[in-house]
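Any chance you'd type out a single protein's sequence alongside its tokenized fold?
>
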Amino acid sequence: MPENDHNPEQLISASGQEARGSKLPRLLVLAAHTDDETLGASVALGRSAEPWVVYLTDSSPKQSNLRSRRLRRVEYAALREAEAQHALRIAGVPPQRILYLGATDQEAVLTLDALVSHFLLAVSRIHPEWVVTHPYEGGHPDHDSAAFVAAMALHVLGRQQSEVPTLLEMTSYHGKNGRLTSGSFLAGQDQGWPVWLTSEELSRKREMLACYSSQKKVLRDFVLEPERLRRAPQYDFSQPPHPEKLWYEQMGWPMTGSHWRQLAQLAMQRFCWPVAS
């Protein structure tokens, strides 16, 4: 499955005036929820010649206790969308380059086949040279679903044509020794390329995050820099990402790791995803 010939490491070599003067190729970020793109890939979005963002879910869980505002689910989803549009304008992403796949927050794994198909259509339409998404690490079931959807869509695309986008991962969050960890990949794994922000980029990231007022309490605990990117490994989504209890299981959310993997394994078989024996 050949990839395009742009080297992602050029991102970390650009700094200061060089970062402002050079542009990365067409980029598509697949984010599970609004604000994920800013936390993990604000620099890549800001430096891309043509950045796109696709949201996997509506960022609005069915469970009211998982929503930060006392709004109906549809109202909360509309609020999260409006916040994202304001934030992304700051990064140079206009509304016409934002797409929504529409899964329910916390439940993306229940509609994997449809999400892969819809994302494949988006990739085929946009023709990005890089796709950036979440790693598979058990932090949030929708983050893991985004990793799955991106991998399967590009796998299918690779059977249809000779060249596919380079699949990269941004950091999200996961549990480590019973505590939330952000700004890094799982311990013992490739930590990718650290992307240090210029003062201008750091100011822009803070301005973008400020747009997500509904998430203010959550976002204050996240590391701002460096952002990290790495080439996505080939996962076996039927296996746990690590031996510890998954973070979303520790949080007592509705989805469990075993149920998520069961659904993912069935979808892997339908998409003929190769798994090393």
Remarks:
- The chain has one domain: 10-269.
- Residues 141-160 form the longest helix (20 residues).
- The CA atoms of residues 87 and 207 lie 8 Å apart.
- The chain has a mean pLDDT of 92.
